[in-house]
From TrEMBL:
Domain SUF system FeS cluster assembly SufBD core: 146-373
Extent of Polar residues compositional bias: 1-13
Protein name: SUF system FeS cluster assembly SufBD core domain-containing protein
Recorded family membership: Belongs to the iron-sulfur cluster assembly SufBD family.
Stretches that traverse the bilayer: none
Entries under InterPro entries matching the protein: Fe-S_cluster_assembly_SufBD, SUF_FeS_clus_asmbl_SufBD_core, SUF_FeS_clus_asmbl_SufBD_sf, SUF_FeS_clus_asmbl_SufD
Segments of this protein annotated with the region Disordered: 1-26
Taxonomic lineage from the root: Bacteria, Bacillati, Actinomycetota, Actinomycetes, Kitasatosporales
Length: 402
């Protein structure tokens, strides 16, 4: 990876850049092109099929595996507790099932050792079902509060044909947590998922999110990450029929010493489907480290595909580091369009000057710039109480930096 000196912003757009040509300053590592879709082992539900990672593998080279508390090597035995509460509207069913239930594993297979360890270690899975043609007036709210120790989990959210739902998954407390989460959308279904990582500073959280999008169905994922010592999330999507749409939005605020990693994979294996990815992050403090990997694969059969992915990062202080890697593989030329972009930089001096010239103090001007940076993503949530909470969280983070 190329490191650079004092360049205000790095941008990659429309395709992979020449290796070593990107520079963003000593505070950040620039985007580069790698083929991260080629994992060191094929997907499997069996943890034994994955070698113990050492940090040199493509999918692990950015992750501080020594801080995973044994989730990666099998030494993390389930010894903790997690308080789980589900608040669902009338008509939504909640079941506890074993791993042999046909609905478990339908949306996707673990792609790394931690996800496979989670699948091998959970005792019972939770299945939440929204019935056919139901249009929920209130969101399904899932609260997961860590009470210490190691926990594993598996949850399946199934939204039947032509149903519409919003799901909020809220992570708080302290835990060493590995889990798989599945979203199965029937034909014509519409689902918005908001996953909030607001852990205590000592928590470790690794999770693979698998979405299977039916014919003409719409899936929107909004991932918000603030807390935790190490957070590594792996959202993925496949299409079960033509006409499917998937949108991925992410907001992360990486603080002093935190490692936050978001690794997305959009597998366009079906004709006439669409995807859009927008992730934005702000970083502050010594050894704050954010990683964003955006992988899009357009297979030969996926004619008529339209896709775009964007990652933007705002570095607020010296000592922070960003790794941003957009990847796009195209196996057919018969597509509507495809592209990607990545940008990392400091505050825009011109924006600050503009605001200060109109009598706004520097600290307030900085806050306004960051609020504007995140505004479009906060609005994607669509739940006033959650939006208010996140804005307050951003304000609290900014209070510590300016």
């Amino acid at each position: 990876m190329a490191e650079a000196q004092n360049s205000p912003e790095n941008t990659v757009q429309g395709g992979p850049p020449p290796v070593g040509s990107n520079t963003t300053g000593s505070i950040a590592v620039a985007a580069e092109s790698t083929v991260a879709t080629r994992m060191s082992a094929p997907p499997s539900f069996d943890v034994a099929d994955f070698p113990v990672p050492h940090g040199r593998e493509e999918e692990w080279r950015f992750t501080p595996i020594e801080r995973l508390k044994g989730l990666h090597d099998g030494t993390a035995e389930a010894s903790g507790s997690l308080k789980a509460e589900v608040d669902a509207p009338e008509g939504v069913t909640l079941e506890t099932v074993g791993r042999d239930d046909s609905r478990v594993g339908r949306a996707g297979t673990p792609v790394d050792r931690v996800a496979a360890q989670a699948f091998s270690s959970f005792e019972k899975a939770t299945v939440v079902t929204v019935p056919k043609e139901a249009v929920l007036k209130e969101p399904v709210r899932v609260s997961l509060h860590g009470e210490g120790g190691v926990t594993y989990g598996h949850t399946v959210f199934e939204v039947k044909d032509f149903a519409e739902a919003v799901i909020v998954i809220d992570h708080t407390g302290d835990a060493v947590r590995a889990a798989n989460v599945e979203f199965v959308l029937g034909d014509g279904a519409k689902l918005t998922v908001v996953s909030v990582q607001d852990w205590d500073d000592t928590a470790v959280h690794c999770s693979q999110h698998n979405a299977l999008v039916g014919r003409d169905a719409s899936f929107k994922s909004v991932v918000v990450t603030f807390g935790g010592d190490v957070v590594r999330l792996h959202p993925r999507v496949n299409y079960a029929g033509p006409g499917g749409e998937a949108e991925f939005y992410g907001l992360f605020f990486t603080d002093n010493g935190q490692h936050q990693e978001h690794r997305l994979f959009v597998d366009h294996d079906t004709p006439n489907c669409r995807s859009n990815v927008v992730y934005k992050g702000a970083l502050q403090g010594a050894e704050a480290h954010a990683v964003w990997i955006g992988d899009v694969l357009i297979r030969a059969a996926a004619t008529g595909t339209e896709t775009y992915e964007l990652n933007r990062n705002l570095v607020l202080t010296d000592g922070a580091r960003v790794d941003s890697v957009p990847n796009l593989e195209i196996e057919t030329g018969e597509i509507v369009g495809a592209g990607h972009a990545s940008a990392t930089g400091r505050f825009d001096d011109e924006q600050l000057f503009y605001l200060q010239a109109r009598g706004i103090p520097e600290q307030e001007a900085r806050r306004l710039v960051v609020r504007g940076f995140f505004a479009e993503l906060v609005q994607q949530i669509g739940l006033p109480d959650v939006e208010k909470r996140l804005i307050e969280k951003i304000e609290a983070e900014l209070e510590a930096s300016v």
